[in-house]
């Protein structure tokens, strides 16, 4: 929606062509490293393409989320070995110096019930196997990461919003983005 209204290019996470995602949700421990390396290389290619282009791009995921949230969570839950996690972390460190922070990060804050509703609305069969403890830990890690984030950030609480169907909810988001882009209310 923001891409359309601001005339930005849109880059969505392509889950349909992901060769690991279904296997991962069936056996997280076996496929966690493979999935995270796949995401890292895919997002790295996206970052390179964005840097080469001249248009503003809005993404639904960043390369940082995998490195600061998903991979550490898998390791902490015993679903990724220490050897694999260290290997993944070294790979991320090797490329992180070539990554530029997003000009603006928009964080949609939601509680577990809202997250579960959103997952169910997507209707991806492989996501039916997501464990609540996994989702809760991810949400906690997101909150910790956002709490330490030093870049340009907008936090939008979406638990009581339906910005896809209610224009007034979406208008609040657009107002916050416009204020940020125009230099109003930024730190």
Structure notes:
- The protein has a single domain, classed as P-loop containing nucleotide triphosphate hydrolases (Rossmann fold, 3-Layer(aba) Sandwich).
- With 187 residues, it is mainly alpha-helical.
- It contains eight helices and four strands.
- It starts with a helix and ends in a 6-residue tail after the last helix.
- It has a two-stranded parallel sheet with strand order 1-2. A two-stranded parallel sheet has the order 3-4.
- The model has no long low-confidence stretch (mean pLDDT 89).
- Helix 3 runs antiparallel to helix 4, helix 3 packs parallel to helix 5 and helix 4 packs antiparallel against helix 5.
- Give the total of beta strands: 4
- What letter string, H or E per element, gives the SSE order? HEHHEHHEHHEH
Proportion of residues in β-strands = 5-15%
Rg (C-alpha, Å): 17 Å
Average pLDDT taken over every residue: 89
Query: Which strand order does the major sheet show?
Result: 1-2
**CATH domain fold name:** Rossmann fold
SS-based class = mainly alpha
Biggest β-sheet strands, sense, barrel? 2 strands, parallel
Name given to the CATH architecture: 3-Layer(aba) Sandwich
Query: End-to-end span in angstroms?
Result: 26 Å
How many domains comprise the coordinates? 1
**What share of residues is helical?**
55-70%
By DSSP (H or I, 4+ residues per run), the number of helices equals 8
**The named CATH superfamily:** P-loop containing nucleotide triphosphate hydrolases
Low-confidence runs: none
């Amino acid at each position: 929606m923001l891409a359309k209204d601001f005339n930005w290019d849109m880059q969505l996470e392509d889950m349909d062509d992901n060769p690991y995602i279904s296997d991962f949700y069936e056996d997280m421990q076996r496929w966690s490293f493979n999935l995270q390396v796949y995401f890292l290389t895919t997002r790295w290619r996206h970052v390179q393409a964005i840097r080469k282009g001249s248009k503003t791009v809005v993404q639904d995921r960043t390369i940082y989320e995998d490195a600061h949230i998903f991979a550490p969570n898998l390791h902490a839950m015993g679903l990724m070995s220490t050897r694999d996690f260290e290997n993944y972390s070294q790979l991320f460190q090797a490329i992180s110096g070539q990554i530029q922070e997003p000009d603006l990060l928009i964080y949609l804050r939601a509680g577990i019930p809202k997250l579960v509703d959103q997952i169910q609305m997507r209707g991806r069969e492989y996501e039916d196997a997501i464990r609540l403890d996994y989702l809760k830990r991810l949400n906690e890690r997101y909150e910790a990461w956002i709490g330490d984030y030093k870049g340009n950030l907008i936090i939008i609480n979406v638990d009581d919003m339906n910005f896809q169907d209610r224009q007034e909810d979406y208008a609040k988001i657009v107002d916050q983005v416009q204020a940020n882009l125009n230099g109003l209310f930024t730190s």
